[in-house]
Write a structure and sequence with these properties.
The structure is a single chain. The protein has 242 residues and is of the alpha/beta class. A hairpin with a 2-residue loop joins strand 7 and strand 8. Helix 1 runs parallel beside helix 3 and helix 7 packs parallel to helix 8. The longest helix has 11 residues. The radius of gyration is 16 Å and the shape is globular.
């Protein structure tokens, strides 16, 4: 039985900890002015990993909040994973040099396959592939565009190139507190033969329990954002249940 990890999410925009609804930059809630304090709080509550998203970077197409991300990585003793606008080998190398443990590649996985293959060969398990899907098809550029590539086809192809971890988001569920798409997550783990971390829609303890039931099938964890910030899920209690 593989372990199931809860990843508290810190979405950074303008140097603050925010949440968007379904990736919409016009529907933003600021939860804390200081993401570094938030990271330390999650660590104090027993987080085993921290999940950071550079929302400014996702929109700009290059990392924007590197200094803050590096400060967070150095300030907590648990590993940190980061996504948002990472498009070049220099971006990857720089973030890893700042103390980040895992880099998440999203849009680049569709738009620049050669780059992704190079990074996978060079860094292996320090790379996760973020697959954000809308109706089964991969969305890119901060969810502003939908490609013609099926999520499962992308996962199979990149697993063959050495990808060991996928982060799967069903965009229709994100920020809506309606529960994750468990079926799609388990399917992706099966077809890729690799670990899939669920993202989007986790709103209650039962969501986490349903996902954790599939840990032996490759569902390796869940990223939880809004539910932690609204208090509908308490991190310490959640970790005792999975």
């Amino acid at each position: 039985m593989s372990s199931f990890i809860i990843y508290p999410a810190i979405d950074i925009r303008g140097g603050k900890c925010v949440r968007l609804i379904q990736g919409d930059y016009n529907q933003e809630t600021v939860y804390n002015e200081n993401p570094l304090e938030v990271a330390k709080a999650w660590e104090a509550q027993g987080a085993k990993w921290i999940h950071l998203v550079d929302l400014d970077g996702a929109k700009a197409g290059h990392p924007v909040n590197n200094k803050l991300i590096g400060d967070i990585a150095k300030s907590v003793s648990v590993p940190v994973q980061v996504g948002g606008g990472i498009r070049t080998e220099a971006d990857v190398d720089h973030l890893l040099s700042l103390g980040v443990s895992r880099i998440i590649l999203g849009t680049a996985a569709i738009e620049d396959r050669e780059f992704v293959n190079k990074v996978l060969q060079k860094h292996g398990d320090k790379v996760a592939i973020g697959i954000d899907a809308r109706n089964g098809y991969v969305a890119t550029r901060g969810w502003l565009e939908t490609s013609e590539v099926k999520a499962e086809d992308l996962a199979k192809e990149l697993a063959a190139q050495g990808a060991k971890t996928f982060i799967f988001t069903d965009i229709s569920r994100d920020g809506m507190m309606g529960g994750p798409n468990v079926e799609a997550i388990v399917h992706l783990a099966k077809v890729s033969g690799q670990t899939v971390i669920a993202s989007g829609g986790v709103s209650q303890y039962t969501d986490l329990q349903k996902l954790a039931e599939h840990a032996c099938e490759g569902v390796g964890g869940a990223i939880v954002g809004k539910a932690l910030y609204t208090g509908s899920i308490q991190l310490e209690e959640a970790q005792s249940l999975v």
